[in-house]
Structure to design on (171 residues):
């Protein structure tokens, strides 16, 4: 089925990569959502490690996310104040202090850029909803307060929201 010899391992590895990518792409799903929140709103439930985009018909699109690690979590209401495709990233002072070897700037599109393919900044702080170069972190408490998504999920959400979209982060 996978050929012979050294090609078998290569083909098997390629098949596993395709299946893993397909599974991640299907991670988002439409679920019932009746919390009385208006359509087009984003709700992040940090304890669930899930982000909901409210459709307004009693459903929401649910995405798995990584959220702030212990001591880095926050909650409250804010809005998206910027949308960026392939953003550059400069580590905030706290991140740089904890990881002094980080460069001062990582260009967008670089495989080492932790913002992934897109980012939406949140008003009132240094936080964003963004993609990731560490997809294994999704579903965990891993960030300094940002909301991380699979790159294919941030690309999907990016197309659904506008600057000014209401965001609620709940523990």
């Amino acid at each position: 089925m996978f050929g012979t010899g050294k090609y078998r391992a290569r083909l098997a590895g390629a098949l596993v990569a395709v299946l893993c990518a397909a599974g991640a792409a299907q991670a988002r799903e439409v679920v019932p959502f009746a919390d009385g929140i208006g359509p087009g709103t984003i709700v992040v439930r940090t304890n669930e490690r899930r982000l909901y985009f409210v459709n307004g018909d009693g459903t929401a699109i649910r995405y798995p996310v990584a959220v702030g690690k212990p001591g880095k979590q926050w909650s409250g209401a804010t809005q998206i104040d910027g949308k960026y495709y392939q953003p550059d990233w400069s580590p905030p002072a706290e991140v740089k202090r904890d990881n002094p070897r980080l460069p001062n700037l990582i260009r967008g599109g670089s495989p080492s850029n932790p913002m992934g393919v897109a980012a939406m900044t949140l008003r009132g702080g240094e936080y964003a909803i963004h993609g990731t170069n560490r997809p294994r972190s999704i579903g965990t408490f891993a960030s300094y307060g940002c909301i991380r998504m699979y790159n294919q999920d941030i690309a999907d959400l990016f197309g659904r929201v506008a600057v000014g979209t209401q965001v609620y982060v709940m523990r």
In short: The helical segments are 6-25, 93-98, 151-160.
